[in-house]
Amino acid sequence: MKKYLDESLSAQERAEALVSELSTEEQAAQLRYDAPAIERLGIPAYNWWNEGIHGLARSGIATMFPQTIGMAAMFDAGLVEEAGKVTSEEARAKYNSYQKYGDCDIYKGLTLWAPNINIFRDPRWGRGHETYGEDPYLTAELGKAYVRGLQGDGKVLRTAACAKHFAVHSGPESLRHGFDAKVSAKELEETYLPAFEALVKEAGAEGVMGAYNRVNGEPSCASDMLMNKLKEWGFDGYFVSDCWAIRDFHENHHVTATASESAAMALKAGCDVNCGCTYMNLLTALDEGLITAEDIRKACVHVFRTRIRLGMFDKKTEYDDIPYTSVSSAEHKAVSQRCAERSVVLLKNNGILPLDESRYKTIAVIGPNADSRAALEGNYNGLADRYVTFLDGIRDRFSGRVIYAEGCHLYKDKMSVLAQPGDRYAEALAAAENSDLTVLCVGLDASIEGEEGDTGNEFSSGDKNSLYLPEPQRKLIEKIAALGKPFIVVCAAGSAINTKADDAAAILHAWYPGSEGGTALARILFGDVSPSGKLPVTFYEDSEKLADFTDYSMKNRTYRFTDANILYPFGYGLTYGNVKVSSLIYKNGVVAVKVTNYGKKTEEVIELYIKDHSENAVPNAALCGFARISLDENEEKTVEIPVPERAFTSVDENGKRAVYGKKFTLFAGTHQPDHLSWELTGTPCAEVEIEL
Which of 102, 419, 562, 672 sees the fewest Cβ atoms within 10 Å? Predict the structure, then answer.
């Protein structure tokens, strides 16, 4: 038996044994994302590129979860982990079948390039909806949960997670291939690196993907500073470039002159797999003396170590019998629906919600996202075997008549080429006028906020120029509001939006809620479940008042550093209950929070914040714990939330993290301890002073 097939040996030993049987040319070829077969050893081809940030993506039918930003709004690590588990089981189920038919193509493997744990520092960034929001702690906690769900705890990895994009990466999309993100040592440690450290050290993420941009002059995929951080954290997985990012070294960053120099720079820095084609030049780089055969061998050991950890060279793994029928099963879709229900954020409610069905005979469902599948999907998505749009969900749930009108295009001024601008407004007004209530479904989709190259609109390579809805939708809202009849706004978008719908009776932000989004929305509207999502990002009033998009300083960005220009705060979200926190006690690293629900049965999130009064601390209180709970009417509970030791640390100007403070304030409530949240909810946070 070949030594690399000996399952009693470590993955490192097996990988070294396997690589020792390969020529340098064969080793170099294995560092491409589309690694070829080694037929003389019976090793099949393998394509490293697969996606799965909110369900298995780009591989046909799969369970479609809410886009990542929506899962962040759940503030529920346990359910995020369950979504990761479903995603990995379906990846295994498909992999098992694909192997049977000899299909080793792209999006068919077990290395999922997920999760995206970049910090959503600016609401204009088009890819922000792929992330867990603006807070490093929330991002780390949910990212760790997703990694645990993807990788499992078996003898071999169920799938291999990959923390991306390392690091300091969040737009602008149009500049990313040549952009240099300049950031201080303090802000690196304070904001941009904590989630990556947590996923590597605490969750054992098997992969890390670099970013397109430079960080303080160094390309992210070949940064000595970033690679040294991985070494400090004990990372022993594989490192992959973002796709065609190494080509940017010579074409856009101009830190090298040739493709072989770029390949050498990345390989020597520690980039094992090239998503792209620049590593086709590795042998040229070897001939030119830019790298050694040992550089190639070392990276090749890393890639086979990961494949061995996935059980690819074992006789049998515990996941080989996951059946294809598990894909998009009823059980898996039930998890997606639960995620969708917990992700929707109720921003405003004048008392109209939950709807009293007996009061309405006819409901108008109007808007470009009312019957849109794209508004459910987000990006980096799979396909659902059945989509329940907002219109579908309301039709299925409501016993009266539903009148539908599209109202307007998502962003164009007319629907029909030969028509005058505003050609669908009259139909929408007629529908609303002949109904007792209008549900106005507006927002965006991934065609106008997303990754450069994936979007096809007049905006900034997928980034947003404004926080407002496209003009045709703003006009639609104005016209419906002018009728003077009750209407509810449902906004599907992956980022902060100011709908300017001041006359709406209620406003819900539904994100991109996945294939079951319509069912979830209807159940919330009619009170089958209470909305319970919380904003994982700050909703600002006006983009004109934001810091420059290209400025990576955190000054005046996110809830930890600003209290200006806020429409709805981070952590905010209403429910149908009326939960109040009456006290909190801190003892031995745990906070005991006493809560009472004076309203309808509800789910709620108890949020824990800490204010460090030392000079090195961030200006405002910062999230340091959360717990999702269910409460019946008039039920009282005591919730225990651990406070991580790291919560008491802050970062000095040199980037050193330590406990600098002695006095701290802990806050607990259903939102953050700011005055606007108090004003919007009518409930203050409880607080306690502690001294170390």
Answer: 102
Domain architecture of the chain: domains with CATH: 3-314 (3.20.20.300), 344-537 (3.40.50.1700), 579-691 (2.60.40.10)
pLDDT tens for 74-108 read 999 999 999 999 999 999 999 999 999 999 999 99
Residue 327 DSSP class: T
3 state DSSP class of 14 = helix
403 backbone dihedrals φ, ψ, rounded to 5°: -105, 130
pLDDT per residue over 328-378, tens digit each? Answer: 999 999 999 999 999 999 999 999 999 999 999 999 999 999 999 999 999
In 203-352, which ranges are E strands?
207-210, 214-215, 218-219, 238-240, 345-349
pLDDT digits (tens, 9 = 90+) for 432-448: 999 999 999 999 999 99
Give how far Cα 341 sits from Cα of 336, 510, 532, Å.
Answer: 9, 9, 8
Which residues are catalytically annotated?
A: 242
Residue 23 one-letter amino acid? S
Alpha carbons 581 and 605: distance in angstroms, whole number: 11
Q: Are 303 and 486 in contact (CB under 8 A)?
A: no
Is residue 301 within 8 Å of residue 15, measured between CB atoms?
A: yes
d(CA 241, CA 275): 6
